[in-house]
Design a protein that fits this description.
With about 575 residues, the chain is an alpha/beta fold. It has helices at about 25-35, 60-70, 90-105, 120-150, 190-205, 210-220, 230-240, 250-255, 310-320, 370-375, 390-405, 405-455, 460-490, 495-510, 520-530, and strands at about 5-15, 45-50, 75-80, 105-110, 115, 165-175, 180-190, 260, 275-280, 280, 290, 300-305, 340-345, 350-360, 365-370, 530-535, 540-545, 555, 565-570. Helix 5 (about 190-205) crosses helix 6 (about 210-220) and helix 12 packs antiparallel against helix 13 (about 460-490).
Length: about 575
């Protein structure tokens, strides 16, 4: 029986360079291999998948996943790549892949390694190669951990962004046998910032709540050292950081009970110096850094002075573990339509739905839209009144129905909105591609530096390498934040053109059809034509995509309890 499935060529390169095997050269070598080994395979039988700017640390790559999907759908008979590590550098990922390919009767060929899974010898050699590759990575990881233990011996500061309350100062790290002094870094207290840190701990212990502590900071106009308002996330980072912890008996007992590796003697917990934590984060390619379990940390007494007594710091950790950050209470059925579109006319903050315990005449629980800044500041920084969410949603939908009653006018605005969303989506994806390339470049630099660090021991280059690693890591964190922002933006424009055509047809055919839509369909319809909505306490301004201006006045006495509330609509 003739196998009509396609042959896949897969190529990958972490970043674009003029050196090594480019994407194009990998593909050409695979084509040459197929021509020599499988002369019956024609060009139209070959599908090429290429991922550029993606690491081999995992298989979470768009074209690779697309290729796997085709394999699962029985559309591919073999996968050909230039080299094994183009697929993955993880033995776990590779074993999982080969098992899945076997399940779908898909052969795998690595032309540079001369491995073919349709032969028993090729399968055995393939597994052995991946085992040795994994062994090499684990050996490097062990060397890195040994170096961390060496660094933890004297509790040195590794450089990078200093925590609030401290500055980085140069000191003598060690002296060689010939009398040469090797530089190191230590933390020094900045009095003004230290008072801020102590205030944060004091208020959290008083309120026992991140939300209330955040409210206090906003109400009193207390900013971070970067001049930005404190968020719960920023506060939590300070409250969880052991650098502020005074090395005393309570600190020793806490880390001992947590089975943390302590690289200092109990006698060094003198009630004066602070703590240093190594191996706190797990940095893996393809995902944001995560905090390791405390049992994986390496703890030592630092050269700097601590700020927070052990009993207080430990109590803070207990409270953080007990309490979860409280968020706004959204309607249980998620029926609010304007979240993400509605802004406060006073301060510009988002307005989010918040459930009340009241019911309207139809028996529905009433939800209001609440300004985020008003909520966080307990009305001190913004006093915008709440609009009735049920009525505001209904009023906006009624206005959309009036526009939809004129099919030609509605279609004009819908298509304009679609073009705008398509343009934004393409722009976001292009930006995401560039950000991921930059992140991969920096991750490769860190990998090279870490390998150098693992071999440097106490050489003069150690301090320089650590500073470089921390500087690059700061850049990666900034890029990760940007990537998440653009992912959120892209997710808001992920409706297909077909979805919009369906919406256009439904709304254009009858102005009343919106009443029959599901909540999600209504939400998509509104986002397809509305750019933003601004609530000013007395009027609602609805901004549609486009540049033409017109105003329509509506009135209701149910949005905020005031008489004659107008809805002002602008295209």
């Amino acid at each position: 029986m003739i196998d009509l499935r396609k042959t896949a060529i897969y190529s990958r390169k972490s970043k674009f360079t003029g050196k090594g095997e480019s994407i194009e050269s990998q593909i050409e070598m695979c084509r040459a291999y197929l021509k020599a080994k499988f002369p019956n395979v024609k060009d139209e039988d070959i599908i090429v998948y290429e991922d550029e700017g993606y690491s081999g640390g995992n298989t979470n790559r768009p074209q690779f996943q697309k290729m796997l999907k085709e394999c699962r759908q029985n559309n591919i008979c073999r996968i050909v790549c230039y080299k094994l590590d183009r697929i993955s550098r993880s033995i776990a990922d590779f074993i999982k892949l080969t098992e899945e390919l076997k399940l779908h009767n898909v052969d795998f060929v690595s032309i540079n390694d001369n491995y073919e899974t349709h032969t028993s010898t090729g399968r055995a050699m393939l597994s052995m190669t991946m085992v040795f590759a994994q062994l090499e990575r684990e050996t490097i990881a062990e060397r890195i951990r040994d170096n961390m233990l060496y660094l933890a011996r004297d509790g040195r500061w590794l450089g990078g962004n200093t925590p609030t309350g401290y500055r980085s100062a140069e000191t003598v790290g060690s002296v060689t046998v010939d009398g040469r002094k090797r530089k190191a870094r230590m933390l020094e207290i900045v009095d003004e910032e230290a008072r801020l840190v102590k205030l944060i701990y004091s208020k959290f212990l008083e309120y026992k709540s991140l939300t209330q502590t955040e409210t206090y900071m906003i109400q009193h106009d207390i900013l971070t050292k970067q001049g930005k308002p404190f968020t719960r996330f920023a506060l939590k980072n300070i409250l969880q950081n052991p650098v502020y912890l005074i090395a005393d008996e309570q600190a020793w007992n806490y880390f001992t009970a947590a089975d943390t590796e302590i690289y200092s003697n109990k006698e060094q917990f003198d009630g004066i110096h602070g703590m240093m934590a190594y191996n706190k984060t797990n940095q893996q390619t393809g995902r944001a850094n995560v905090i390791n379990d405390i049992s994986d940390w390496i703890i030592s007494v630092g050269k700097h002075n601590g700020m927070i007594k052990g009993a207080d710091w430990v109590e803070v950790q207990k409270l953080l573990n007990q309490n979860k950050s409280k968020s706004y209470r959204k309607p249980r059925s998620n029926v609010a339509l304007l979240s993400g579109l509605l802004f406060c006319g006073h301060c510009g903050s988002f307005m989010r739905p918040k459930l009340t315990q009241r019911r309207n005449k139809d028996g529905e629980l009433i939800y209001d839209y609440l300004c985020e800044l008003k909520e966080k500041s307990k009305s001190q920084k913004c006093d915008m009144k709440r609009p009735n969410g049920n009525e505001l949603d209904r009023l906006v939908c009624e206005e959309v129905k009036k526009i939809a009653a004129d099919p030609s006018d509605f279609m004009k605005h819908l298509k304009r909105g679609l073009r705008n969303m398509d343009y934004n989506s393409e722009s976001y994806q292009e930006t995401l591609k560039e950000l991921r390339k930059s992140k991969t470049k920096y991750e490769k630099q860190i990998q090279n530096l870490v390998e150098s660090l693992a071999q440097s021991q106490d050489s003069a280059a150690t301090s320089y390498i650590l500073n470089q690693i921390n500087e690059i890591d700061s850049k990666i964190k900034a890029i990760e934040n940007q990537i998440q922002e653009y992912l959120d933006l892209a997710n808001n424009t992920n409706s297909s053109e077909e979805d919009f055509e369906i919406l256009a047809e439904m709304l254009s055919n009858t102005a009343d059809y919106i009443d029959e839509m599901t909540v999600e369909q209504k939400r998509n319809a509104l986002r397809s034509i509305i750019h933003k909505i601004v609530w000013e306490g007395q009027k609602v301004h609805v901004y549609f995509f486009g540049s033409e201006d017109s105003e329509i006045d509506l009135s209701t006495d149910e949005i905020s309890g005031a008489a004659e509330i107008g809805l002002q609509t602008r295209y």
